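With this grant's support, we have settled on a layout for protein records. One resulting record is reproduced below.
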Amino acid sequence: MIRWIPEATDRGSAARAGRLQTDRGEVETPVFMPVGTQAAVRAMTPGQVAATGARIVLANTYHLALRPGEELVRKAGGLHAFMQWQGPILTDSGGFQVFSLKGREITPDGVRFRNEVDGSSVMLTPERTVEIQHALGADIIMAFDECTPYPADPDLAERGVRNTLDWLERCIAAHGDSSQALFGIVQGSVYPQLRKQCARAIVKHDLPGYAIGGVSVGEGLDELKHIVSVTAPLLPEDRPRYLMGVGLPEDLIESVQRGIDMFDCVIPTRYARSATLFTRRGRIRINARRYRRDFFPIDPSCDCEACSGFTRAYVHHLYQSNEILGTILGAIHNVRFYQRLMADMRQAIVASDFAGWKREFLEGYA
């Protein structure tokens, strides 16, 4: 099981620092979890991920159930042994992936869709998602929810809340006395009353952690801030709060300010594959011609492997030459940028100067 230990709360905001204690190590919060959808963080070895300061990663139930299959992972000793990651792992239930598929059929029982690998018909239910996650052996597992698209009318959003709450009860029953930590997910689209209704119902189950879902489907920063501001205060103060799928630096900062502890997103590695790198001065496109003769590090303030040993000119050359090392170095740098960002926010919270830190960071981040 896991336990979140609060350490500090910023005087001028709801930002908080704590420690997530697990059987596989302690994780300082706020935390950003690199995404290893297929049991691998794109273009990085487990050792390289750990070297960035990351202590927990995410893998995806839906994709791993399709390939290689959860039974193979179980026979390999579980996800930790299979992917050679010694720290904690969180698995998403697959709800977001399933609800982004075309031709899916949503019923009170679950969701029917076509297998992307072999074309067969698949029925994913709350019980089935828990069964898969038990086999994968993650430390934190997620309840199956209906991820409502954006925009959504009130009726569609209300159905999403109804299914999410019904499916959570079925997930809890299927979970039994497993030592894995099951988190519930708050849905409700952009409707405050639905978010409040869902949150109040979920917290009655006294779960080890709670997530806010459905905020990375196109709403924009203003709606994100509003949803988090409405929902986060309704979640228990002594449990971790997880905002799912949110990953731009400005999104993380605004959400930490509103009391969120955990994040995940594919942005750091996905952007690296398209030569977009994060620096304290903002994002840069390292394959742009201006960097062809630039012999400074990607970010002079960064201590990652890419910045410690290589120049912008060299990394530019790698991308222009389509060398895989360019993506590797870009991924290492971006993941390290995110780990440093979270560590800096944590330090500002402990010092109770989050507003000052935020102002200074955003002034330099174009």
The first strand starts at residue 3 and ends at 9. The mean pLDDT is 96. The two ends are 41 Å apart (CA to CA).
